Description:
With about 350 residues, this protein is α+β, with helices and mostly antiparallel strands.
Amino acid sequence: MELRTFTSTTPDASTRGAELGAAFAPQYRRTAELYLAHFAELGIASDAVRAIAERTHASLTGWAPGLAAEAEAIAAAAGLEPWRLAAVGGRTEILAVAPPPREGECSTAVHVGPGHAAETLQTWDWHDFLVPQGLLVEFTAAGGMRVKMFTEFGTAAKIGVNSAGLGLHFNILSHQTDSDAGGVPVHAIARRVLEEARTIEDARDIAASAPVSASTVLTVFTTDGAGSRAASLELSPAGLGVVEPAADGWLFHTNHFLDQALYVGDTMPADSTTVERFAHLDDVRDALAGLDPTARALAACGGHGAAAEICMTPDPTLPRVDQWATLLTVAVDTEGFALEVFPGRPDEAAAGLARF
């Protein structure tokens, strides 16, 4: 995956959307084309895709009109029908009507405690044929918060940090209450947290206010003069669960619910590696703390190199929809307001994570 970067010149959502759409029109059009083909490959009818996309955009308009306006301006500047861009912005909501995937997405580790900044690492695992390029964006939100984030071309946000010292990681989940109702896109919830939240409590309130039709977990963390805090906010149509760090300050998340009540409805397939990846992070926890981001990424492999559970490589013997790759390794610096990124697996990052 190639990473593109962009710094917006305006806090106005529509103007920023027009900037992005004009700067990256081919990328937005190509990503929409790839996702629409993927939905068809999964057996989701085109009229169902459009209906869900339009419902998610209507939900977004009611919940975060500025984000809806930005998306509309991107589509206009990129020469896309709005529903086609909305199908990417609501891709998790559309995928909720397909059978749960053989795999999940992403492994996240966050270490917090008194007297030190949050230390984080995430792998973003997805289909490489859907994301030839990713986007790193810096902008100032309407309320004055500065934001740096990574996302796909068409989703509102994924992983990021704001100038209040709050960072966010993002993992997909699957629950029996997920549906085609077209709720607020979970990627837009991540974006609004980055634009508005100064505390974990702020982030929780924002997440709880969004009516969702698909599940995900936002792991949020903050650093201030007293140290660092974190919580995983598990979202589903059945409700919101909050998972706290362990006594030693570590908070791990992969792709199954940890909240006991929500776990009852978990639908991630039993042959997924989510439990295995969680156990791997638990096994290497003592080796991760106190390292710079590059060393942390390498240590996360546990000395197993590319065979490590969290380092995914596509298996060409499987159908394309069952092939997964670690497309990004990222650490969030809440003190320095920065993302440390590498476009690949953590075991490949020996040359160093790039600072954005």
